[in-house]
Amino acid sequence: MSAPQIVVHRDKELMAQAAAARLITKIVDAQAARGSASVVLTGGRNGNGLLAALAEAPARDAVDWSRLDLWWGDERFLPEGDPERNVTQARAALLDSVPLDPARVHVMPPAGDRYGNDADAAAEAYAAELAAAARPEDHGPVPSFDVLLLGVGPDTHVASLFPELPGVRETERTVVGVHGAPKPPPTRVSLTLPAIRAAREVWLLAAGEDKANAVAMALSGAGEVQAPASGAYGSRRTLWLLDRAAAAQLPRSLYPPASP
Ligand SMILES: O=C1O[C@H](COP(=O)(O)O)[C@@H](O)[C@H](O)[C@H]1O
Fold first, then answer.
1. Which positions fall inside the Glucosamine/galactosamine-6-phosphate isomerase domain (predicted)?
2. How many distinct helices (H) and strands (E) make up the chain?
3. Which pLDDT band holds residue 257 (cuts at 50, 70, 90)?
4. d(CA 46, CA 63)
5. Could you confirm whether domain 4-254 is CATH 3.40.50.1360?
6. What do you get for the CA distance between the two ends of the chain, in Å?
7. Is the full-model pTM beyond 0.95?
8. Does any ligand 1 atom lie closer than 6 A to the CB of residue 74?
């Protein structure tokens, strides 16, 4: 477990650009050290903002996109191509404009097709895909992702782990079907906290005043069942990337001066 580090940026645009720059550096370093890199993507406004900023960053060409594994932290269980699916939005923001290896883009299964309405079966299939990608040195059923991104919801949810729902209490499975989510759509597929914690680095993104209460709650010792974001941490680093509005309810002693 790594203690949270907090970085506060002026606004959500700067936060997205700075996070994109950080991510490029992290991917380039991992590729130099180990030959490839792995990143877990998030949906939501801040996750897509980061991807859009990455698409605009000239340094994106420093990444070898063919040696990058992409996974998802959660997915809205909807048919392939639905505009509300996280992967559809990620493709529009970045993925369609970079030369990824399609075999390394590990999309969570859609509704319809093979799994029909069975989000639990889709979750099992994704858990099997993760397990197949894990190497002995990962010491567990999921790869040690280089960076796992999480948007923080206004209710403190991360991935599709919502306060008090069964998914956030899961201690064995790495991926679960989520039913009755308070944010539409109600049916989703999500990594669990144990899978999230397998990542070397977990970066939590929150911008805007509607996130201020969630950020303060998660960083002030709330339990993970009530505030799932507080249970999300990486084995080496846990980084909270905020804008000033989202940090507004945090005690000033918790973080250094804001960047310009
Ligand atoms: O529905 C979802 O919401 C969260 C947070 O989204 P935001 O728009 O409030 O930033 C996101 O992290 C998750 O991946 C997504 O499925």
1. 11-240
2. 6, 9
3. low
4. 21
5. yes
6. 30
7. yes
8. yes
